[in-house]
What does this fold into?
Amino acid sequence: MSEEKIREVLESVAPLLVDGSPHAVALGLKIDQLEPDHIIMRAPYSPDLVGDPETGILHGGVVTALLDHACGLAAFAGLGAQDTPATLDLRIDYMRPAEPGLDVIAEASTVRAHGLVVFVRATAHDGDRDDPVAIAQAAFMVTKASQAATERAKKAFGQGETT
Amino acid sequence: MSETLLQTLLNTPYVSKFGVSFDYRGDELTGLLPYEENLVGNPLIPALHGGAVGAFLEITASASLIVSQPLDRLPKVIDVAIDYLRPARAADVYARAQVARSGRRVANVRVEAWQGRRGAPVATLHGHFMITPASERTR
It folds into this structure.
């Protein structure tokens, strides 16, 4: 699939993969940028997602879900926007707490995609990407379950002929 | 353990939003993440969001550290490595943690989450947490 085509499919499918995901909606996750090699997503600050009431800092789980989702989109793009792969593992280093009141932004890029496996790297920050809140590395794979889900998604959203 | 600290953890907005609860006997704790629609990541499988499962594992790790020893503050996560072993179905999730090592500043914890069968875990977490053990005087 050409770069242009990947971009086109990504732009039509990615919003469904966010707004169609009840958990992403519950956390208010948004897409900021959809470059196939650079996905940017945002978790808006919200008092009901706080993990430490004394400080008002967002719960680490919000950062985990945001990074997982952004990495998933990057992996999808890395595989040529044809298969939604399953997460094999997700490793996160929490550098510092996110600043209370600020949105958390995740930027994810595919490091290498080969065959059925994709490696993704992501950074979460609250405005300055050189001062990260967390850094993540994840591996994704196209599995039988994820392929079946992709087929169902294509049928449901009329994306049958993406190639 | 500190009942107050465990209650503080349960009362944090994020933890109560997703209805996490704990069942504990002595220092053995099981976390429960009751199924609800807003945990679903992909409605077409349907499977729970990897982030929701990861966060639940993290919360269970913190709770297990709290029941295993007297602490002054909530544990702070330093790093986690989550392995997703099978898709988490639209059903309740349980988790149990093992504190592999707990020192004066840092604890190393392993957590396993399962649904129907304990022997078929859906995800595991291995992480480091910063802890503040209660000083002798305040115990």
User: Anything to note?
Assistant: Residues 50-68 of chain B form the longest helix (19 residues). The beta strands of chain B are 21-25, 28-33, 40-42, 47-48, 76-84, 93-102, 106-114, 123-130. Chain B touches chain A at residues 8, 11-15, 17, 37-45, 47-52, 54-56, 58-59, 74, 76-84, 87 (CB under 8 Å). DSSP finds three helices and eight strands in chain B.
